[in-house]
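Field log, afternoon session.

UNIT: design team B
ACTIVITY: writing a sequence onto a fixed backbone
BACKBONE:
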C-alpha cells in the first residue's frame, strides 16, 4: 500500500505523452481533462504520502519530477499553441529549469530534499488551475488569459525567489554537517 503515492506520480508522468498528443491534435478539451486528472492524482498522492507516512526516497524525487515534467511540457506546448503569450511561458520554463538544476545538484551531492514549501505549493496550484482554464476554454477573452498568466508567472517567480534562501540554508547546513570542526 505504501507504494500507491509513487504509482500515482509515475502515472502522472505516463499521462504527459497523452497530454502532448491531445494538444498537438488540437483537442484542448481532452488535454484539459488530462491536466485535471494529473492535478487530482498529485493531490491524492501527496495526501496519502503525508496522511499514512508513505513518504519514500523515490517519492521525494518522483513527485516533484512529475510536477516539473508536466509543467515543462505544458509550457513548451503552450508557447507554440498560444504564441502571443510566449514571454509568460518562457519565464515559467526558466523557473522550472532553474528548479530542476537545483534539484539535480542536491541529488548529485546526495543531499536529502525536504519537500515543497507552502509557496511552492501555491505556485503549483495557481499554475495548474490557470493552465486547466486555458486548455478547457481556449476561446477565453485575451484579458482573462493575460490575467491568469500574469498571476501564474508572478507566483512562480515569487516562489523561486523564496526558495533561494531555502537552498542556501540547506546547502550551508549540509556543509556544516560534513565538516563539524568548521
Amino acid at each position: 500500500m505504501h507504494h500507491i503515492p509513487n504509482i500515482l506520480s509515475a502515472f502522472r508522468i505516463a499521462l504527459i505523452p497523452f497530454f502532448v498528443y491531445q494538444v498537438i491534435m488540437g483537442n484542448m478539451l481532452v488535454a484539459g481533462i488530462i491536466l485535471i486528472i494529473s492535478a487530482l492524482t498529485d493531490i491524492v498522492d501527496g495526501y496519502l504520502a503525508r496522511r499514512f507516512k508513505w513518504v519514500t526516497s523515490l517519492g521525494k524525487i518522483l513527485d516533484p519530477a512529475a510536477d516539473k515534467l508536466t509543467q515543462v511540457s505544458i509550457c513548451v506546448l503552450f508557447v507554440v499553441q498560444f504564441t502571443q503569450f510566449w514571454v509568460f511561458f518562457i519565464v515559467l520554463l526558466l523557473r522550472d529549469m532553474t528548479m530542476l538544476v537545483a534539484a539535480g545538484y542536491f541529488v548529485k551531492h546526495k543531499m536529502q530534499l525536504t519537500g515543497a514549501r507552502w509557496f511552492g505549493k501555491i505556485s503549483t496550484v495557481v499554475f495548474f488551475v490557470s493552465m486547466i482554464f486555458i486548455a478547457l476554454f481556449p476561446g477565453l477573452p485575451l484579458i482573462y488569459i493575460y490575467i491568469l498568466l500574469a498571476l501564474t508567472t508572478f507566483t512562480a517567480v515569487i516562489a523561486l525567489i523564496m526558495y533561494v534562501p531555502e537552498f542556501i540554508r540547506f546547502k550551508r547546513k549540509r556543509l556544516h554537517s560534513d565538516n563539524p570542526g568548521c
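LOG NOTE: Residues 142-178 form the longest helix (37 residues).
NEXT ACTIVITY: expression trials, pending approval
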